[in-house]
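Ticket #4471: structure output looks truncated?

Reporter: J.K.
Steps to reproduce: submitted the chain below (299 residues) through the standard prediction queue, then opened the result file.
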Amino acid sequence: MPDFSTLRIAADPAHPRIARLLLNRPERLNAISMAMPREIRAAVDWAVANPDIHVIVVEGAGKGFCGGYDLAESAEAMIDHPCQQEKTPWDPMVDYAFMKQNTEDFMSLWRCPKPTIAKVHGHAVAGGSDIALCCDLLVMAEDARIGYMPTRVWGCPSTAMWTFRLGPLRAKQLMFTGDTLSGREAADWGLANQAVPLAQLEAETLALAERIAGVPSSHLAMHKMVVNQVMLNMGLEQTQMMANVFDGITRHNPEGLWFRRYAQQQGFKAAVEWRDSGRPIPEGDEARELIRQMEHKTS
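Returned output as attached by the reporter:
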């Protein structure tokens, strides 16, 4: 079996047509590290190359599915990173190349010819929701949460899957508010295929995967290709290009820089609490003045 640092993948011993891809950083709530996107893609490639595998189940170890990008340390430190640049001027193409690569790696779950099922417990939020929504199907625990809170400041979902999964009305509500949905709400909105009590999540996900696994792999590949082509015709790739550019802008415009400076002064947890509380987020000239004051204090 492949040996990865952030995840595991193997055929289910009791269900050899089903691969289990486990995000495996439970000590960090399976947060997305630099290595994880590439390893997701490599794990998917392994499953695609295995003719016995018909379906891939993606899940998280520990308390939840995935808590998003592992940003606490980098957000609090004055370090330069392709998507959190301290140097001036900001280089948007360096940022875009980095985030677009991550998007392409997550989208391997969507592009691969084998159906993928996200099995979500706990939280699938921010970048973790990107991973879940790149899967073809979504089964959630009723009390799980999914959403993209950084739309309030410092983020734009790079896979742009919300509109394609929910339609413009619902997607706008979530993007404008940064609110999360419970598993029950996600099923009611048509985002999740099923929402079940946590105790039943494993059994229900396996039952769906087994039902799919009985179909010839060539048929599954063709059906997936037809549905995916509809999304491509609707402009998925062009929309993702815009989303990745905008994601970089949100981290380097006055509002995004204020958020980072506040995290550096008060800690990432405090910055996230402000972001998610509903308090007005400083913008424009107000944000610039607060940035100036914070930078003056640290100089």
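Triage note (M.O.): checked the attachment and the full token line is present. The CA atoms of residues 7 and 253 lie 34 Å apart.
Status: closed, working as intended.
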